[in-house]
Structure formats: C-alpha cells, structure tokens
Specification:
CATH superfamily: MFS general substrate transporter like domains
CATH topology: Growth Hormone, Chain: A
Helix content: over 70%
Radius of gyration: 23 Å
Order of helices and strands: HHHHHHHHEHEHHHHHHHHHHHH
Strand content: under 5%
Largest sheet: 2 strands, antiparallel
C-alpha cells in the first residue's frame, strides 16, 4: 500500500497541468472578488454617482455570481465544454478589468460587474467540480489548495489598487476649492466601510460628496494592470486545451480520470452527475435514490450557506463594529481588521493542504466548527477589548478557512461522486454569502453594532448543529440504505492508483 503522501504526490505529477490550471483560474476569481471594495469611491467619482447608487454594483456582482454558480453545472458533457467555459470566463474577467475605466455611468459599471460576476460563478462551479472528478477520494487536499488561490488573488488586487487610489475627494466641486484636509478622514472611514460591503449598516447619506465637477482619479491604471496580471490565466487554460488536443480534435476528448479508469465509468460521471442546479430535480434522478441522498445534499448546502454567510458578514461588518461604541477604534486601526481576516483565511487554507490528508474530514470539520463557536463566544465575552478583537479575527479566519473545501470533498465522497453535490454546494455558499450579509446589515441597523457578534455566534451554533445532523444522515446513508445500481457500479469500479 502506497503511503498517503506518496500517493498524493504521484497523483499530482500525473495531473499537474490540469491541477495548476484550475488553481490559476481560482486566482483569477480572487482577483475579481476583492478589487471592488477598495476602489469603490474612485469608481463613484468616475461615474459621478451618489453613494446610494454606486453601492448597487455590489449587489450586481454578487447576484450574478450566484446565477453563474448555478449555470456552471451546465458545462458538464465533456472536458472540452468545461475548459471552453473556463477559457471564456477568465478572458471575460480580463476584458471587464480593461473596460471598467471606460464605464462613465453607474448602469454601465453595474452591467460590467454583472458579467464579471457571472464569469466568477462559472469558474467557481467548474473548477471545484473538475478537481473533484480528477482526484475523487484524494480531492480534499487539492481543494484546500484551490481555495488558497482565492485568498492569494484577493490579497493581490488591493495591493495593486492601493497606489492609485485618491487620497482626497476625487470630484472637486464647482469652486474647485474642496478642503481636502477635512474631508480626508471621512473618506478614509467611508472607504473602509464600503470595502466590506457593509454600507447598508450605516447612514451613508451623511457624507457630502460631490457628484458634479472635475474628476481627479488614477484608478484606471490599477484596472489595466489587473487585466494584464490576469491574462496568463486564460493562456494557461488555452495551453491545457492544446495539450489535450481539444483545439484541433474536439471529437476525441481524452478521459479526465486516470488511464486505468474505464470509459464507462467516466461516461457515468459526466452524464449522471454534476449537472445544473435545476437538473438535480429531474424526476428520473429523484426516483433512483433514497431520501438520505437528498438530505445529505440539503444539509451540506445549509452548512455552507451559513459558514460562507459568516465569512461575508464578518468581513462586511467587522469595521463598522470596531468604530462603533463601545470600542470606538480609530479608522486606520479598524481598517486593518478586514485585511487580517482575509490573510488568516488564506494562511488557514495553506495549512489545511497539509492537514487535509493527515486528518479525516469529520475530524477537521469538527475542529474547525468548534473553533469558530469558541472564538465567537470569546468575542462576545471580551466585547470591550480592542486587542482581543484582533486576536479573535485572526483565529476565526484560521478556523473557518477549511470548511468549504472540506464539506465539498466530504459530501462528494459520501455520495460516490454522483448527483449534483458540487453545483448545489457552490450555489448554496454563494447564496449564503449574499443573503446573510443583507440580514446581518438589517439587524445591525435596527439593533446596534453589538448585534453583529450575536448574529455570527447564533449562525456558528446553527452550523455545528447542522453538521451533527449531517454526520447522522451520512451514517444512515452508508449503513441502512443500499442502492442496487450503485452497488453494481461500485463492484465494477477499477482499482485506484493507491497500489
């Protein structure tokens, strides 16, 4: 029996080009998901719109990311269709980066970001699904690495944008004599509030920013640089298509799994599984599986709905909480919290690459979810401590970082890589990130900033309870129910590369 680390390395050497390509498209995803917050005020100046108008671009991107996550499951028939969708999506992201400086109206900017969000959703579903199909029972380690690249891209784009952001008001009034020294602190506070998509929590109309006058901004250079940084990604997808001879011989698509896998098995994976979200509800699929099969889908999706919602809510409102009573933290200090949180998530996913093949998925998820609960409870207990808010933010990011890839790999493993698990889970995660941010913002607006910690703590307990139900449903599915068609397929399954 080959040791786990040697088997993982052997699998990676066999599929290194596919793997690096899927990792690179998630870097593109991360680039696109993190640029909007830091640049939103400069884009407001560029479009000469109000703050209320410009915040709609957040919704535009998030909503179409959700739509793209569902539609990504449609590209499932062959490796050609999946890689073609990734090529188009990553190329569209570069084009959107290049076009954003030319969008001088908020409606045009919203359309551009909707197109980017659609591409991001397609990337999210396809890259996760292809890695799961490629590595199957060994996919957890590679999924952790995949999601590390989101964090890497999310760290790069703000660094690229920062030198080109306006220090003062970038739209001067008609008299061209804006008092930059007095407006700068408000702009810094406002930029940090908007960076986490938390504008709904406060009265943003209190900031008297000009919409008419001379526009002074250099943010266009940041977007053009990001467009160039992203261009190697579609080039990598194109190189993979050339390597697989899909550009000239589209009819002879090579098997995505290892050479020892039968063609019938590959056909089964493509035709039966990983379809669109709505294709999962087809009567022919429903009749062939026990109730536990769908319960596992529902519980896995609910866990990711809540945990990704916690990530979105915490990143969105931790700044608002820090600058409000009782902490009353300075704007510059509080502005570091969001960056620390995302850096901790990135580091946590890097560490989880090692942990995912040393620990089983249930153990890693139990440790992660309990860590999230304990951290949230301690944040509520020490709610007056600025120092502990920084410590808690870092620990929370480390604990919650591995949940999404671990749940995805664990669910697919339980369901024997059939059904629509990847599409359902990715879509639920995107929905939760959008909806829980909105709900948390409404609660904060009506009940005060402390409700932010309460919402996240309640969500943490709920996610752990759902995980316990998930383990119970897994026990029922694997021990009490038997699908004859699945048993037949399992007995015919060829040996894996573990020998």
């Amino acid at each position: 029996m080959t040791p786990p680390d040697e088997r993982i390395w052997s699998l990676f050497k066999r599929h290194w080009q596919h793997t690096l390509t899927y990792w690179s498209v998630f870097f593109s995803f991360g680039l696109c998901i993190a640029f909007l917050g830091p640049t939103i005020l400069d884009l407001r100046c560029q479009t000469q719109s109000t703050l209320q108008q410009i915040t709609w671009v957040f919704f535009s991107q998030q909503f179409f990311l959700l739509v793209g996550s569902s539609l990504g499951g449609l590209f499932k028939k062959s490796l050609l269709s999946s890689l073609s969708a990734l090529l188009c999506s990553t190329l569209v992201i570069s084009i959107v980066f290049a076009v954003i400086p030319l969008c001088y109206h908020v409606v045009l900017l919203s359309v551009a970001l909707a197109i980017a969000g659609l591409s991001m959703g397609v990337i999210d579903t396809i890259a996760n699904r292809q890695l799961v199909k490629l590595y199957q029972k060994d996919s957890a380690t590679f999924l952790q690495a995949l999601h590390f690249f989101i964090g890497l891209g999310a760290l790069v784009s703000p660094l690229v944008a920062d030198p080109f952001l306006a220090d003062d008001s970038c739209v001067l009034g008609a008299n061209l004599t804006a008092n930059s020294s007095s407006s700068s602190p408000d702009l810094e506070h406002l930029r940090s509030s908007l960076a986490g998509q938390g504008a709904v929590s406060g009265n943003i109309s209190q900031y008297p920013l000009h919409t008419e006058g001379m526009v002074i901004t250099r943010v266009s250079y940041a977007f053009w640089i990001m467009a160039l940084i992203n261009l190697p990604v579609p080039a990598a997808v194109l190189a993979l298509m050339f390597h697989e001879r899909l550009l000239f011989c589209p009819r002879s698509s090579p098997p995505l799994l290892d050479k020892n896998s039968s063609s019938r098995k590959s056909h089964s994976l493509d035709d039966e599984g990983h379809g669109s979200l709505f294709g999962c509800c087809h009567p022919a699929k429903i009749r062939g599986h026990p109730a536990s099969f769908f319960l596992i889908h529902a519980l896995g999706g609910a866990i990711l709905f809540i945990t990704d919602g916690i990530i979105g809510s915490y990143a969105g409102f931790v700044y608002t909480y820090a600058v409000s009573p009782p902490l009353l933290m300075g704007h510059k200090t509080a502005g570091c919290l969001d960056s620390i949180f995302w850096a901790a998530i990135t580091i946590g996913r890097l560490a989880s690459i090692y942990l995912s093949y040393k620990c089983s998925a249930p153990k890693l998820l139990t440790f992660s979810l309990v860590g999230v609960i304990v951290t949230q409870c301690l944040l509520m207990i020490f709610y007056t401590s600025c120092e502990f808010l920084f410590i808690g933010t870092c620990v929370l990011g480390l604990c919650i970082s591995s949940v999404f890839p671990s749940v995805l790999a664990f669910t697919e493993d339980i369901l024997e890589y059939k059904g629509c698990a990847t599409t359902v889970l990715v879509t639920c995660a995107s929905t939760g990130e959008m909806m829980l941010q909105l709900l948390t913002g409404i609660v904060i607006h009506s009940q005060g900033s402390y409700a932010f910690l309460l919402c996240c703590t309640v969500a943490s307990f709920t996610s752990f309870c759902l995980f316990l139900l998930f383990l119970f449903a897994r026990h029922i599915h694997t021990n009490l129910y038997t699908d004859p068609s699945e048993d037949t397929e399992m007995t015919e399954k060829p040996k894996t590369d573990s020998s």
